[in-house]
Amino acid sequence: MHDRERWFQAARNGDVEEIKRLIKAGLDVNERHPLGWTALQVAAINGHERLVELLLESGADINLGDDFMNVWQTSQEKKMNSLHVLITREDMFSDYMNNRANFQGCTALHYAVLVEDFVMVKLLLESGANPLQENVNGYTPVQYSRSQEMKKLLEGYVTKFEELEKQREMEERRRYPLEQRLKEHIIGQEGAIATVAATIRRKENGWMDDDHPLVFLFLGSSGIGKTELAKQIAKYIHKDVKKGFIRMDMSEYQQKHEVSKFIGSPPGYIGHDEGGQLTKQLKKCPNAVVLFDEVDKAHPDVLTIMLQLFDEGRLTDGKGKTIECKDAIFVMTSNLASDEIAGHGMQLRREADKIMKERQASLEGKMEMAEQVTISRKFKERVVQPILKHHFGRDEFLGRINEMVYFLPFSRAELIKLVAKELDFWAKKAKERHDIDLSWDRQVLDLLADGYDVHYGARSIKHEVERRVVNQLAAAQEKQLLHTGCKLHISVDNPSGESSLTDRQTDKQTKQPILRLQIISRGSKETIDLSSVPAPEKMGFTPFS
């Protein structure tokens, strides 16, 4: 018998000493049975209190859900005989459960309530079990309680748990502010991050009108972080982006008849029973973060529905049912005025860079200074607002936006970070897929940052790294120049000593900097000029005859 089999057998029998021995031997306390359950769930359903205490002391996740569905579904998924699954479930877990019911997502607390073990339920609740956690069917433990005593116990702990969670969240926010969380995932855009974080903080702490949902309009060029910031807001609020984030591509709603696709067709029309793409998802999560991507492309009738949504915090679907969503956060993105914002932003960065250099020079380089770039109110009112009003054609729509958030072009320092992040991504892939160590000089970051296009943002950096590095690495590997386990180092070979794209373009006779790849394998060193390795699309292949 293997240790894993002994582990679950001991959990079924309540063998504390055997569990202690296996934990000491290094077995993961949250190890799952091949059919989905954990030792804690087994101990809880079988009433082994001392064993439950030991497992929790050893780090067992009290709120981990079971992966077991029912006998038939599990046998289909695992490609096992259903009778074998049934016998294993009864022998290694419990013979108390209904074989047809779906138990996926059930926690130890769910199981203790199902078998009406009052002592076990109290033990789990006192140890921090979440009485509000739902299984795959959407049921919390209290919904399985049959006795009034059990129900009263669970409901009492629901109130306590909510208060403790609120305190924990407040402490977490104080210790780890939203700005700090967002900056870990988004490069640059400090002004946008500060505006969004301050507005969400007002909402969380009750300093906003509760009758209206929170509405943002994110403005700026493509590939500059607008969508990513919306995702990070959802992750912060819901912890689970899949559940709490709804993305609507508004380029799909450019025609009048596509309103029905948005909220659902009225009775008597085709697709009535299917519901609308937005309404279906808002029903599941009324407090979601909803992203309306490229909102400027939506038909005016769709904007009318959105205005009702923003103004009243509710939406009526095609069936006439009203969905309350005052707690939702709506984020619209648009490329309107992106050229004007980008041009203004670049000018501001140049001015800020000049001022910063003068200040640093006066301080003789003793102090590092952060670049401060803020779009003026005058620019917003005289340049951006007229463009928005001309396009949307209604002041009341713009009036329901809480904050217009401006995303600026990346500074040179931010571009270096973007290139480094992209190279780190490919270095990780190289290690995982090919056991190849990839490193580079600082000058490589500067050279690749020259590929930045203000109109495409971070996507232009991604494309530059793929075009100048990844394509060539793939081609070199195909030509068997690279070997598993080797080390690669990228450097810049620039005979002219130039590193800036502008400088290179001023002198047509100047040789452009090129990337060199040094391969270190089994003690030998070989240097390859990456520009001399043809990209895959330029390589000739001889077809099989």
UniProtKB/TrEMBL annotation:
InterPro entries (alphabetical): AAA+_ATPase, Ankyrin_rpt, Ankyrin_rpt-contain_sf, ATPase_AAA_core, Clp_ATPase_C, ClpA/B, ClpA_ClpB, P-loop_NTPase
GO biological process: cellular response to heat
Domain AAA+ ATPase: 212-362
Coiled-coil regions listed in the entry: 147-174
Boundaries of every Clp ATPase C-terminal domain copy: 410-501
Keyword vocabulary terms for this entry: ANK repeat, ATP-binding, Coiled coil, Nucleotide-binding
The keyword Nucleotide-binding appears for this protein: yes
Renumbered ranges of ANK repeats: 35-67, 104-136
GO CC term, one of those recorded: mitochondrion
UniProt signal peptide: none
Organism taxonomic ancestry: Eukaryota, Metazoa, Echinodermata, Eleutherozoa, Echinozoa
Protein's name according to its UniProt entry: Putative caseinolytic peptidase B protein-like
Residues annotated as transmembrane: none
One of the Pfam families matching this protein, by short name: ClpB_D2-small
GO molecular function, one term: ATP hydrolysis activity
Record flagged with keyword Lyase: no
PROSITE patterns listed in its UniProt record: ANK_REP_REGION, ANK_REPEAT
